[in-house]
Amino acid sequence: xxxxxxxxxxxxxxxxxxxxxxxxxxxxxxxxxxxxxxxxxxxxxxxxxxxxxxxxxxxxxxxxxxxxxxxxxxxxxxxxxxxxxxxxxxxxxxxxxxxxxxxxxxxxxxxxxxxxxxxxxxxxxxxxxxxxxxxxxxxxxxxxxxxxxxxxxxxxxxxxxxxxxxxxxxxxxxxxxxxxxxxxxxxxxxxxxxxxxxxxxxxxxxxxxxxxxxxxxxxxxxxxxxxxxxxxxxxxxxxxxxxxxxxxxxxxxxxxxxxxxxxxxxxxxxxxxxxxxxxxxxxxxxxxxxxxxx
Length: 294
Fold this sequence. Notes:
Layout (H helix, E strand, L loop, with lengths): L32 H10 L7 H15 L8 E5 L10 H8 L4 E4 L2 H4 L12 E4 L7 H12 L2 E5 L5 E5 L3 E6 L14 E5 L8 H10 L3 H13 L15 H8 L3 H9 L16 H7 L2 E4 L2 E4 L1
Parallel strand pairs: 1-6, 1-7, 2-3, 3-6
Antiparallel strand pairs: 4-5, 8-9
Helix pairs in contact: 2-7
């Protein structure tokens, strides 16, 4: 718990590890591979890209508000493998040292004996594909609850205050079923600029072990001005809309795609019919419900 300690409270949070570290040399974050990672993978080549700035703000929010949950599930997605989605965990593990947990699939996170996830700030679930409705129903409450039950094999349950944030990586647009009005899922789309660039990712991951680099980024996130940022907002990208559409029934998807263009009615035009004659053949009559094409 991060509440004020008393006789009945065990506070397991002793502060962020890097907060107490004194750097031995000054590091300019713009000269680091982590900067290049954010710029190319999440900024699509531009560090000032709205999605890149959003994820920086989101990390800052988690760091500056340790005792607050956003109640969102962060989806890190791309169509291709090897874009660098999972590499974000290395950076999160660097910033939130001692308060992270990594899962190779969704099943290990949803298992009964889950004591390893207790008292964590970051829960990272890698490579999620087509989660079942049952798994989604289990996952959503775990992302929004205020307290959670943890259990160790052959021992009793432990109820603790919950402050973790859940990150999921996937090569699908919608690894979890998402509805248009869903507020829980935060969709982030990785670019392919660093696609299969294993030498870069290896060097970037190695750089996260440098304490001076880690301290520079920690200070960047801790001092970043996020007064105008809300973790309930969404970055300006079309990926979320595509994810929602991919979860629609085929009939609904057809209607959405077909009528999305203002000149949708031209799809009915016979190939041999001249466009001028076709437009003349379309009559518009007024009704009480508005103009109607016929």
